[in-house]
Amino acid sequence: MHNKLLILLNLLIVVNVLAEWNSNDFMKREHSLIKPYQGNRKL
Description:
Helix content is 63%, strand content 0%. By secondary structure, it is an all-alpha fold. The relative contact order is 0.10.
């Protein structure tokens, strides 16, 4: 039970960090969830 809670907590933290770190990039490609790699990413 505690294991699942820890995993969920870690997942939320990682998602929040990535969301903050990637917010500007995400605004440029709103369809990233549907089509993750369209080729319009700046690498």
